[in-house]
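ENCODED BACKBONE
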Amino acid sequence: MNLTLYITDADGVPMPEPNQDLMAWARFMGDWEHKYIDSTMIGRATVQTIFRGQDTRMQPNGEPMLFETMVYGGKLHREMQEYATRADAVRGHEVMVKRVESGQ
């Protein structure tokens, strides 16, 4: 797992935290507006997409996976997808919403 800490710029584009300062990163991540991408309730399920600020991929190569969409509740509870970019996360959120709506 890559231990690089990430923040986003004013446009939501991820970048490594300049000094890899854990406290600066924690303050940044403590502001929900920096993490929040989207949240959609469908019946008893919630689809939530966030910026994680850490790369949790297990492979040593490839783009950092910094965003995730997770389902809480319903048939797809704990279903998760990871993304490298905010644009992919936004699209992925909509795909997951459609999956939850259709029960798949």
Q: What stands out?
A: The first strand starts at residue 6 and ends at 8. The CA atoms of residues 65 and 84 lie 4 Å apart.
